[in-house]
Amino acid sequence: MNIRKALAAVLAAAFICGAAASCSSKDKKAPDKAASAEPTTAPVPGVNFDEAVGVQSGDAYLAVVDTNWDKQYLGGTDEKNQLCYKAGVVHIDGNGDYKVSVTANSTAFQYLASGDPNGDYKVNGIGFAAVIIHDAESVLPNAIITVKNVKVDGRDVELKKKNYTNTEAEAVRTNIFNEWVSDEFLPADARAAEGGLYVNFDTNSPSEINDGSYSAQIVDPAEFKDWTDIEVDFSISGL
After folding, report:
1. What are the two backbone dihedrals, phi and then psi, of residue 212, each rounded to the nearest 5 degrees?
2. What is the dihedral of CA 89, 92, 96, 99, to 10 degrees?
3. CB atoms < 10 A from the CB of 25, how many?
4. pLDDT, tens only, 64-105
5. How many CA atoms does the CB half-sphere of 236 hold within 13 Å?
6. What is the pTM of this model?
7. Which of 55, 107, 168, 194 is surrounded by the fewest CB atoms within 10 Å?
8. What is the pLDDT of residues 35-54, one digit of tens each?
């Protein structure tokens, strides 16, 4: 890992922890920090920067960071969110089924990643992935996210464990792959459609459904080597 990527990894780790990269495994969580800035890239012939997609209050999106902590989408449209182009964002307007996605198949991303708007650059793995509902602590505080299916380049990925929902940084989220949260230290407000994972938010009192089957790492990151598209189908309940 070169110096630039190492620095990016440290900064991203600090971002995912929500405060500092030195946080313990008990509280290493990735908050929602969707940027509101407009794309800052100057016009380039053959490149469509108008395909940048940002999120608004109540929108769900697929937050993704690659293995190198270099290419990412965290809901913003600034230069740090290279995967914002053609991102599949959906507004949550009630209980039901929804889909979010990210893709490397855009002229803007290909140009930023490889210098060629018609290139075939593929994203290298995942260092973090989650479905996040922006600003949901205010507008959809009772939302519960249940992941139904994850696809990489049209291929179904095995869900190794069950996902849970929690609230942090003013957002409601479910982790798909977050190595900063261990199965032994899930958030106190972790919940599923069947109920809370802890009694009265006490992490020393697991509920009946908290049988070890819930995790912040529900997929094998090896399934995401050199990808172009990721799609996540999920349902919303509790509203």
Report:
1. 90, 0
2. 10
3. 11
4. 999 999 999 999 999 999 999 999 999 999 999 999 999 999
5. 25
6. 0.86
7. 194
8. 444 555 678 899 999 999 99
